[in-house]
Amino acid sequence: MSPRWDPNPNIRRGRTVIYALHAHLVFTPKYRRGPFSDEILTRCEEIMRSVCADFETELVEFNGEQDHVHLLVHYPPKVAISKLVGSLKGVSARRLRQEFPHHIRRYLWGAHFWSPSYFAASCGGAPLSILKEYIENQRQPG
Length: 142
What we know:
It is built from four helices and six strands. The longest helix has 19 residues, at 81-99. The model has no long low-confidence stretch (mean pLDDT 88). It has helices at residues 38-54, 81-99, 101-107, 128-136; strands at 12-13, 18-19, 22-27, 58-65, 68-74, 119-123. Strands 4-5-3-6 form a four-stranded antiparallel sheet, covered by helices on one side. A two-stranded antiparallel ribbon has the order 1-2. β1 (12-13) and β2 form a beta hairpin. It has a single domain, classed as Transposase IS200-like (Alpha-Beta Plaits). This is IS200/IS605 family transposase. It comes from Streptomyces achmelvichensis.
């Protein structure tokens, strides 16, 4: 018997669910100060990949600039985005402060690394207008 081929790698399967959930996340450091060097961004990505793996979530893409980071995550329905975000920000803040204490202290003071707010958007799939039309047309008058 040949292995099963799934034509869309973005569609994942669980025991009782088939899903394709993606979120675009943006985090900024406290005061929008710019503590990120290339080295710190690289380490931040490694830390965030590890946290995502703990949540059975895939960090599909990561990038950033001096004053913010972008993440594209593929997550299962059992994961609450707010819990994932809390762990991503908490673990990365703690480890980056431990590993780069002098550099981080120049930009950020006090106990906070990340701003308490964040941006999250669902993404992927068809545009909302197409989905709305599809659902409206499910039951044709007959």
